[in-house]
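Input sequence (290 aa), recorded before submission:
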Amino acid sequence: MNIKMNPLLPESDAREAALFFVVAALCFLAVLATLVARGTYTAAEAWTAQVEGEMTVLVSDTDRRGAESAATLIEALPGVERAHVLTDEELDELLSPSFGPGGIPDGIPLPLLIAVDAEGDTTALAADIDAALAEAGINGRADTHSAYAAEVRKALGTLRIAAIGTVLLLTMTAISVIAFATHAALLARKDIVDVLHLAGAEDRFIARLFERRFWLLGLKAGAAGSVAALAVTAIIVFSAQSSNAPSELLPKLSLDQWDLMILAVSPIAGALAARIAARITVGRSLRSSL
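Predicted structure, C-alpha cell format:
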C-alpha cells in the first residue's frame, strides 16, 4: 500500500502564485537596476577617461593661419599626440546642442579652438602649452576639462550609492514579503503543526519544511526575474546598436561576462534570501504563538 504524503504547502496555491509574481517582479527590478547602474557607471568612466585625455586651447587676437601655427607648436611639445584646429563644421556640430538643429546663426563670430589629444598629466601639460604660446607671442589658454571630469566623478559616486540603496530596498522588500507569506502559511496550517508537535516533531524539522518550500519558490522566482531582465537588457542593447545617434553617457549594456554573472547569481541570492526569511519567521512564530 503506497501512502502519498501531502506537503504543508501544496504545489498549486493561488496565494503562492501571487507571491511568486511579486518576488519575480522584485528580482527583475533589482537585477535591472544593477545592470543599468553598472552600464551607466561604465559609460561615465569611459567618457571621463576620454575627457581627461583631451584638451582644448582657445586662441584669440589671431587668424586661422596663426591658429594653425599654434597647433603645430603645441603638437611638437612632449606629451601631445595630436593637435588640430577645429573647422567651422566641427564647431557647428560641437555647439549644435546649444543652438539647435538650425546651427549657429549667421553673424556670430566663431572662436578659434585647437583640439589636443594628450597623454599623461594634462594639468602640467596645460601649463607647458600656456608657456609655449606666451613665448611665441600667441594669446591662448589651455583647458584640461578637469572641472567636467570632476563633476562626472561626483555624479558616479552618487549613482553608486543610489544603485546600492535601490538594490537593498528591493531585497528587503522581497524578504518582508516572504516573511509575511511564511507567517500566513504557518497560521493557516496551525492544526497540522500541532499534530506534528504531538508526534514528536521538533521546531527545526517544521522550519526545514518551510525553508525548502520557499527556497524553491525564491529560486524559481529569481530565475524568472533574471530571464525577464535578460530579455529587456537584450532589447536595450539591440536598440543601442541599431541607433544612429548613440550617446556616450547612456548606459553601456553589453551583456558581457560580468552582466551574465549578475544574471546567474541573482536567482541563488533570491533563494537564499527567501530561505533565511522563512527560517527566521517560522522560528519566531513557533516560539511565540504556536
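Checked by second reader. Helices lie at 14-52, 64-75, 88-99, 122-135, 146-188, 190-198, 203-242, 257-288.
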